[in-house]
Amino acid sequence: MSTVATPKQPPSPTLSPTVTTATRPGRRGLDWRIKFAVLSVVWGFSFLFIKLGTEGFAPPYVSFGRMFFGAAVLLAALVIKRQRLPRSPRTWGHLAVAAFLCNAFPFTLFAYAELTIPTTLAGVCNATTPLWGMVLSLVALSEDRPTRRRFAGLGLGFIGVLVVLGAWQGFSGQDPKGTAMALVASVSYALGWIYVRRTLSGTGDGHLALSGGQLLVGALQLGVAAPLLSPLPSALPAGPLLAIFALGALGTGLAFLLQYGLVAEVGPTTATMTTYLIPVVATAAGVTLLGEELTWNTPVGALIVLAGAALTQSKRRSSRTSRTVAAGDATQGDGAAQS
Asked: 69, 149, 170, 316: most buried, per Cβ within 10 A?
């Protein structure tokens, strides 16, 4: 999932100005449904693009290319909309931390993980981000009060992880190192979400400026780190290069723009439902296009994980017909993590 950290204002996270939406009876159209479907597919395919990218490039360069092309899309959008990047040095300092936690570090971990684990497992690990987010928010965010339902969702979600990994078989058939890296990446997404929520709300900068700046800083971070982690590529194979371009331009840059429009049109609750379709798309792409083996415990465990994640995000209904929401991208990630 694309993972530009754009938190909403309390009680939800935001990097962007608030947008007031209201119930509009009689408003119909397919526009938001098209955005929803495209976003789910793009983020779900991100894991396939990562796998294809690692066939020609070392993981740090896959992540660098992803950040570079994603930043290019958002910077182009800034130029078209005649908006500027943030000016405050303090804001740039926070963006540097956010870029590391939400982008550079987890993107690179997922790329390394997919050297040894299938895209199906990577997609399921990404779906655990809301579970880690709840665990961390109980410590870091005092306004997030635990409920029995959310605790039940947390337990259910981690049971689902054990089912996916085949715990009763001693986790046989899964690479523990690759799986651990994918799970740590999901934890990083959640930690980054909390950091952004605490530090980048109310900066006065627009969501596009902050997110463009974040991806730009992340690309610079990886531009420095990649040569230190792995030798420079000796060739530029077309297939993996196209996969990285699609991963960055579509799965990161365009996905953020789609997510922002979706949140502004239908609200964050509907928009974040893409999180629950990402592992489905990732699994379908891995099995049909890469020929990955699918055993019964992966889809069953994934459903349990998603049910648990949904419970951890559930809140009491409000009787208000209007609400203030922040328009922004979730992470996880790839989805970002959105994806």
From this structure: 69
Whether the pLDDT of residue 159 is over 80: the answer is yes
Q: Distance between CA atoms of 339 and 337, rounded to whole angstroms?
A: 5
User: Helix or strand or coil: residue 245?
Assistant: helix
Q: How far apart are CA 292 and CA 276, in angstroms?
A: 21
* 135-154: average pLDDT: 72
Q: Is the pLDDT of residue 152 over 70?
A: yes
Best CA proximity match to 41, nearest among 299, 245, 329, 282 = 282
Looking from the CA of 98 toward its CB, the CA atoms found within 13 Å total: 31
The amino acid at residue 23 is: T
Residue 70 in contact with residue 208, Cβ under 8 Å? no
> Alpha-carbon distance 71 to 330, whole Å?
17
**C-alpha neighbours within 13 Å on the C-beta side of residue 63:** 33
**Which whole number is the average pLDDT over 145-155?**
76
Task: Give the list of residues 6+ apart from residue 55 with CB closer than 8 angstroms, or none.
Answer: 237, 239, 240
Which DSSP string corresponds to 164-212? Answer: HHTGGGTSTTS-HHHHHHHHHHHHHHHHHHHHHHHHSTT-S--HHHHHH
The pLDDT value given to residue 334: 59
**305, HSE (Cβ side, Cα atoms, 13 Å):** 31
How does pLDDT run across 7-38, given as a tens digit for each residue? 443 333 333 333 333 444 444 444 677 888 88
Burial tier of 38 (Cβ tally within 10 Å: 0-12, 13-18, 19+): middle
- Please report which helix (H) or strand (E) contains residue 325, including its range: strand 322-326
Supply the pLDDT for residue 110.
97
Which of 17, 10, 263 lies closest to 137, judged by CA? Answer: 10
Q: What is the mean pLDDT of residues 58-74?
A: 97
